[in-house]
Please model this.
Amino acid sequence: MVSATTGAGVTTGTPTVYYTLDNGTQSTGTGTSTHKGQGCWTYAPLQAETNADHLLFTMVLATAVTQTVNIYTSTGRTLSSSGNTTLVGST
Model:
C-alpha cells in the first residue's frame, strides 16, 4: 500500500479487504491482514473466500491508494492487455 498523498509505503492502520468470487457480489473479507514492511501487506483469507475459479481481493486503507489483485485458480488461462480472459489449453 502506498500513501495517497506522498507515495511512501503505508505501514500502519487496519486495511479492509473485500473479495469477489467468480464475478459475483463483493463481500467484506474476514481473514487477517498483516503489514510485512515497507508498505507490503499480506492477506490470509478464510477458505470460504477462496472457493472459486476467479478471485478478486481489494485492499482499502483510508490513507492509501486502493489495490486490487486478480487470481485465477484454474490452469491454462492468460489475461490479454485488453482485459479479456483467453483459454489456452485445457483446465
